Amino acid sequence: MSESKSTTQSMYGAKTIIFRVFTVLVYIAFGSAIFHLLEKDEAASEVAKFEENYNKTMTSILRRFILNETDMKIIMTEIRETFLQEVFPKEWDITGGVNITIQAITTIGYGDIAPRTVAGRMFLIIYATIGIPLMAMMLTTFGEKLKHMIRSSIICFERKILKRSRPRDIQRKSVIAVFVITAVLLCFISAIGTMIENWDFSVALYVWFVTMTTIGFGDYVPQGRGTSNPILAALEFLYAVITFFLSLTLMACILHALSDWLNSTKPPSKNDLKQSLSRIANSLSTRREEQPSIIMALPRPLPPQALPRTM
Fold first, then answer.
1. Start and end of every Potassium channel domain (predicted)?
2. Where are the domains of the chain?
3. What is the mean pLDDT of each run of 10 residues along the chain (311 residues)?
4. Secondary structure in 3-state letters for the chain
């Protein structure tokens, strides 16, 4: 009977996870399409304006020194690729829509991409209002399941390997295990980030910690190598998305584990405080009674025979 009940509960948990993941994915796809329709024209116009001003400025500068039109275009392209990667506006494609939706509903908000139109900003308000709770529900479910997996693994390890029939302090050990797993994952994705983003390990560690905690300063943003190969670009984008969700799941798992640990340690009641105070008072009183009393012994007078004779 208990086995069938546990199976039913696990099946319900799996259905809940699948439903919430599917809901979030559909919501991200919906928001990406809407943002793409609302923002693509404005982004294209910004790119065209920037391109026009850039070409005019560079042409007037380079014509003073270079007469060959081909060499001038090559130099302009090199300058654009080398120095203008951060400031040059980009076309708003479907990946831009996915990027802004994920940053919005996960509350990361790097700031490298944002809606420019009034319609896009109004839609973002409504979209994030619904999407943030949906994402929180999905991450809560994932974090709860991951916490149970870690807890079950610790119990199984202590029973089968350490031969402990009744494992103790499981909540505290679960918190430690989750923190260790998070630290290992953070170092692992930072090491991969050094290869993909050409960052130092310290920078990659800083960026992914800021991302994992949803601080999102925006001074560094994971963007990949900017390769022209669509397969590599898709893999880099998929790596970033998976890392986002896995990091946020671990943060939710940490919150669940900490909550269980703190709830397992009940605060002392008034009666407990009174009893502890009375015990302290009793111990102090007994110590005073046990201390030996010190009596000053006065010297006895000498007998007359012992007194010295005077001449």
1. 83-146, 181-258
2. 16-92, 97-266
3. 40 77 93 90 83 81 74 78 64 81 92 88 96 94 92 92 88 94 95 90 94 90 76 84 91 92 73 73 65 54 57 50
4. CHHHHHHHHHHHHHHHHHHHHHHHHHHHHHHHHHHHHHHHHHHHHHHHHHHHHHHHHHHHHHCCCCCCHHHHHHHHHHHHHHHCCCCCCCCCCHHHHHHHHHHHHCCCCCCCCCCCCHHHHHHHHHHHHHHHHHHHHHHHHHHHHHHHHHHHHHHHHHHHCCCCCCCCCHHHHHHHHHHHHHHHHHHHHHHHHHHHCCCCHHHHHHHHHHHHCCCCCCCCCCCCCCCCCHHHHHHHHHHHHHHHHHHHHHHHHHHHHHHHHHHHCCCCCHHHHHHHHHHHHHHHHHHHHHCCCCCCCCCCCCCHHHCCCCC
The three-point CA angle 25-31-37 to 5° equals: 140
Per-residue pLDDT at 225: 72
Give the per-residue pLDDT at 31.
93
Kindly state the tokens that stand for 134: 């949906």
Q: Per CATH, which fold does 97-266 belong to? A: Helix Hairpins (1.10.287)
Measure the CA dihedral 222/225/227/232, to 10°.
Answer: -70
The predicted structure's pLDDT at residue 288: 58
- CA of 6: how far to CAs of 247, 252, 267, in Å? 29, 24, 32
